[in-house]
Design goal:
Blueprint: H1 15-29, H2 35-47, H3 51-74, H4 81-94, E1 99-100, E2 105-108, E3 129-134, E4 136-138, E5 141-142, E6 145-150, H5 157-175, H6 185-200, E7 240-243, E8 246-249, E9 262-265, E10 268-273, E11 276-279, H7 288-294
Antiparallel strand pairs: 1-4, 2-3, 3-6, 4-5, 7-10, 8-9, 10-11
Bound molecules: glycine and manganese (II) ion (2 copies).
Length: 303
């Protein structure tokens, strides 16, 4: 443990003392002090945020929401995916975020159905949807927000049916973000809504086939890393998790072609508290009417 570390006897705050201190904490908390146990300690430490950490996360998330509002205001047919991305990331930088928490995902039409797409080169057409999954990083803490919006400012009837279903599933997932609930509760709540809705729309016949179009989990911890570590035990006050259900219908899927190339995800960052869930990314609009209303409104930077 002390390899190469010199004990400067006159200095009680040298690296030697620090490693001694770490060792004593580890020995107190674990039977063997091995690296696996150290991992567990960090899971606990990073799962529950201090007040200071929550303040930083509120900042990174609110900066991110400003980016989303700007993208909703400025998007139009003929732009490229990377130009929409630029409107969002401009706001991140303008409000002091040092970087992005992960490479921005800006996938339009067929690209919205590709889970980790981040090429962001396609040109947007009228009546395309675009899925925007982006997060500013501020002082080390990342946001992780997704909105799916129509390029021309108006959802088609079919896009709206899928969108409203994902939104309903997401709201059910957020409602399940209650201290004491299992980590999997938001996922189970979202899947119940999605499977019933996909059957009603005739996209699947058997509710258990929901995973043809929703093949991911619903939540992960958020913090110093976009996919932060945690115990995955029951939800605890002071924890921030994402709730991010989606429906991804690739071309040539086994359903009516009218649904092909529709990919929708809605993702918010939820703080678990003793008084219920707090949506830290609520400033980014997600109701159909709000999104349609913002479209075309001149952004501040264009005035
Ligand atoms: N942006 C990565 C994720 O949503 O998990
Ligand atoms: Mn995301
Ligand atoms: Mn996420």
């Amino acid at each position: 443990m002390h390899k190469g570390v010199v004990n400067e006897k006159a200095n009680p705050f040298d690296l030697f003392e620090l490693t001694e201190y770490f060792k004593s904490v580890i020995d107190r908390n674990t039977s063997k002090g091995d690296s696996f146990s150290l991992g567990k300690i960090f899971q606990e430490l990073r799962e529950i945020k201090t007040e200071e950490e929550i303040a930083l996360m509120r900042r990174s998330i609110s900066i991110t929401c400003k980016g989303f509002i700007s993208m909703m205001q400025n998007i139009k047919p003929g732009m490229t995916e990377y130009q929409v991305q630029a409107y969002g990331e401009y706001e991140f930088k303008k409000y002091g975020a040092e970087t992005e928490g992960y490479p921005s995902i800006c996938g339009s039409r067929e690209n919205s159905t590709i889970l980790h797409y981040n090429t962001n080169r396609r040109t947007l057409n009228d009546s395309d949807l675009i899925l925007l999954d982006m997060g500013a990083e501020y002082h080390g803490y990342s946001a992780d927000v997704t909105r799916t919006i129509p390029v021309n400012g108006k959802f088609t009837a079919d896009q709206k049916l899928i969108y409203e279903l994902v939104l309903k599933a997401q709201n059910a997932g957020i409602t399940a973000c209650v201290a004491g609930n299992e980590f999997s509760s938001p996922h189970k709540a979202a899947v119940a809504v999605l499977s019933e809705g996909l059957v009603k729309l005739g996209i699947i016949k058997d509710p258990s086939d929901y995973d043809t179009y929703y093949m991911t989990g619903t939540s992960h911890y958020l913090g110093l890393d976009v996919h932060d570590v945690g115990t995955r035990g029951p939800l605890r006050s002071g924890t921030v998790i994402t709730v991010e259900p989606g429906i991804y219908i690739a071309e040539n899927s086994d359903c009516d072609p009218k649904w092909w190339n529709i990919g929708v995800r809605i993702e918010d960052d939820i703080l678990i508290t003793e008084n219920g869930p707090v949506n830290l990314s609520a400033q980014a609009p997600k109701n159909v009417e709000e999104i349609e209303l913002l479209h075309g409104q001149a952004a501040v930077m264009n005035k």
